[in-house]
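Posted in: Protein Modeling Q&A

I'm a second-year student putting together a small comparison for a lab meeting, and my supervisor asked me to include a predicted structure for MarR family transcriptional regulator. I've never done this before, so apologies if this is the wrong subforum. The sequence is pasted below exactly as I got it from our records. If anyone can share the structure token output, I'd also love a short note on what stands out.
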Amino acid sequence: MTETLNRTQLKAWRTFITAHATVIDLIERNLAEAKQLPLSSYDVLLALVEAPNRRLRMNELAHAVVLSRSGLTRLVDRLEQEGFLKRDRTGPDRRATYAVLTLKGFRAFRQAWPIYAQGIEKHFAQHLTEQEMSMLTQMLGRVLAAAEKPSFPLSSES
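Accepted answer (user: helix_wrangler)
Welcome! Here is the predicted structure, written out as tokens:
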């Protein structure tokens, strides 16, 4: 691998990260203006809505929402205080702590969805064709798959 990037690679990277940050910020603002959950809280509730029995181990939840363990713990503390989820140790692995969606959390998730969906449509989807979205999904899927592969250090043997 090279340590230099050509202009096209650097431009693609900067466009990707700038577009991501800008759209996330716009959706965050839309949610705040509508007095809905912040996007990070919504993402936690979404992961739980999609999970079997609406419960996930804390490490699975951290991976699903791409937060550090400490960042997730603080967020889960807030969501638990607000009654949107509860922690539970009863499950297949009693050593693990699970985050479990509550009815109040499900209702908050459902209430925020229209604003979130409008934000996705307005700030993202309307600017791409179906074919472009499929292509983007495929391309970013390859990047994600490569990033999630375990990397092994190269042997120092020659």
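A couple of things worth pointing out for your meeting: The chain is about 65% helix and 5% strand. The longest strand covers residues 85-88.
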